Amino acid sequence: MLVTVVDSSSNPSTIGVVRGVFGTTVTTHAKKSIVFMTPRRYLPEKNYDSAVLLTGLPDDSHSSLGATFNETLYNDGEYINSWDLDPFVKTDDTAIDLKDYGFGDFDEKDQSGGHLGHINLNIKNDVSTYKEIDISGVVEVDKVKNSDTFTVLLSADDPTDSYSINVDTEDGTNPFYGLAIYEDDLPKITDFKIQPNEKDPFFVDYTWNCDDDDVWYGFLHVSDENIKDQYHGALMHIPLNDEIREIGVNNSIVVDQQTLTDNFIVTDAEGVGISFADAKVSTTAAFVPKFTIEGLAGNAVKFDSNDVLFVGSPDDNDDCFSSLGKEMSVVLHCINTSPNFNSGADQFILRKGQLLSNMSLDIFGRRVGITNTGQIVARVYSDGATTNSKYVELTSNTIIRKDVPLNIIVTFDANLYTGNVKLFINGRLEDQTGEVLASHAVGNNTGWIHKTDIFSGNGRLYIGAKSESMVSSGWTGTIEEIVIYDKLIYPVEVKSGQFTFTKPLEELTAETSSNAKTYNARLFVKDYHNIRGSSKEDVATTASISYRKAAFNLNGVAD
Prior knowledge:
Helix content is 1%, strand content 35%.
């Protein structure tokens, strides 16, 4: 068995863990074990289009040939260069590298140690399931690096054991799965500063330096409160990386319950379980998405266009957007594995509401004409209706590509006079609404209605599909780390190193004797892996900087 350690999505600095995962079929014995050994020599790097068995050679000129005419180092005949695959004997001609990989040196007397990994198997629980063996000792002992290839031998724990383990090829039912865990260094942010804008001192400029090659996107938090972490002001945080309690044939979602009695985790800005709604998977087994360990930052949820998750009660008698008003921000991460948009329906990523009368938000990949490309579309609704809805619609320039990560941010600010709703893809502004309107007509509108709240009614938040009954319009691929804020965040182009803040803010405290109000700002920068977490070890962030504008002390008490 050959294992190649490769990371094609980033520039990792170190390999942390290497694990092997394989399908098992145990045929005898109730409790047995298997071990991974490391052969110390490789077979020659060659391949053959065909093989011919030769019998009855006319002379002895080829009597010493091995398996092929050119293969002389290793063969299965009685030759002086024969090699030994016995993992329980340490000899000079063994092909097995028996050394201390964390289980001690090989002891020939009791036949212990020298192996790379070990796991117990149970015929009652382990038939036709994936089992995981930690073989990370090869990283420390053999100094395996990115793109290195190493061989492993799968063997019974005892040479007298009599049972079989199927290791399928990639075309088999349970193919071998190798997983390498990389440590990707956080982007480095320096010189985070604030100063008045040179052209208009009423505005402020935030500046910084960040030169990392794998920077993905970033955003600013600006608040008159302490900004503890990136989830400041989060109405709900849906990580979708819940630990898998049970890995079965279908990898169905079964997670730690934590503070909820639900099927996946939803928390607020303080990490407390949301109490206003249930987080559920569909009651129809065919509509339940599956976990994948190939998320951007660990586990993620994989949808196949027929799967759905939802937040909210099944009878639609609660509204998880009820606290939203004149500000909202949505951040999510996804990868499409089948972007065939020349047939079928739009692929919905997120939808709040199911009926026209309770619709608030849509984010989806749109089918575009007869081409095989699609774009990200975001809709924000201003009014509930029984027959016709009113909304603004934004469309990305970015085209959805297979297996290419997407960061989608939608911001909403009813207090502005133009650009109230914005769509950002991978940190870049790709569409926004125009000047505000006096009212909305049915369908798509060019601008928002000034100081009008986002519409919201009783109805569930759907993830991965349009609704539980319309799952054919679902996303195909992974979704992870969804954050919905009841405040505004400010996406920035990280490489530019500069952002001009133009929004008017309240400058005086709401007191009888008013003083100048202090605001805090903090920058968060993401690469393609370090996207989740609340500490400075989890995501790249700056310390908060504070400022306030000079103002008179106003006493509101009449003389």
